[in-house]
Design brief:
- Helix content is 54%, strand content 4%.
- The strands form two sheets. A two-stranded antiparallel ribbon has the order 1-4. A two-stranded antiparallel ribbon has the order 2-3.
- The protein is globular and about 60 Å long.
- It contains ten helices and four strands.
- The protein is mostly helical.
């Protein structure tokens, strides 16, 4: 694992690897992760995942955090893998499916369990606001990168020139509409997994007839007698 507050090595991947003073870690693990995610996802998810790494790294630099760039990169690359059609029947939240895939990838390459745990947690919690920011830097920064790229949280904390460099490498044409469609396609087959999380908003907007779970009603309807 490589620890850095502003990663600067170059990648052996065929994809562009440097922008805004941040580079993809130059390691076999990072290159294999890039190849796997490139093969398993479409351009939308691939480019989004790479931007999450860049924006997460810049957020880490701005916050003065020391983080393992390689683990942040793996977390970013795998974070939306659970949206893929192969997981539609899992019955689990897509975040957990992606986290489990990342864990299998890392364990298969002999990565220590503490590192596996950090990556798993980073992916599993990336749509659960208010918690990751208080955890290990890699966990916090995957969420920070996602929130920057999808929601625009802290938009002005990254300079216009840095944003331009990153989006030149990994463009985001029609991104808002396309990512919402990807979310919808990935979670509509298992709507029960959206109970209590932000993805219920997606199905409420885009899936006719969807009825979101009601936490209060679940309590009232529980089998406990008063």
């Amino acid at each position: 694992m490589t620890t850095s507050s502003s990663p600067s090595s170059s990648s052996s991947s065929s994809s562009p690897s440097s922008a805004a003073g941040v580079s993809v870690p130059d390691s076999k693990l990072a290159a294999e992760a890039t190849a796997l995610v490139r093969d398993m996802t479409d351009d939308l998810i691939y480019h989004h995942s790479r931007r999450v790494y860049w924006f997460g790294s810049l957020q880490g630099r701005a916050r003065g955090l020391t983080f393992d760039a390689e683990l942040l990169y793996i977390g970013a690359m795998f974070h939306d893998l659970g949206l893929d059609a192969r997981f539609h029947g899992s019955g689990r939240r897509f975040e957990v499916d992606g986290a489990d895939e990342a864990s299998r990838f890392l364990r298969g390459r002999g990565v220590p369990e503490d590192a596996v745990r950090r990556v798993w947690t980073a992916i599993a919690l990336h749509t659960t606001p208010g918690i990751p920011e208080f955890m290990e830097p890699e966990v916090a920064l995957v969420t920070a990168g996602v929130e920057y790229d999808v929601l625009g949280v802290g938009y002005d904390s990254v300079s216009a020139s840095d944003r331009a460099e990153i989006t030149a490498l990994h463009p985001r044409p029609d991104f808002k509409r396309r990512i919402l469609k990807a979310f919808t396609d990935g979670i509509a087959p298992k709507p029960e997994t959206t109970f209590g999380n932000v993805k219920a908003d997606v199905l409420e907007h885009f899936v006719p007839g969807f009825s979101r779970g009601d936490f209060v009603q679940v309590i009232r309807d529980s089998p406990w007698e008063e």
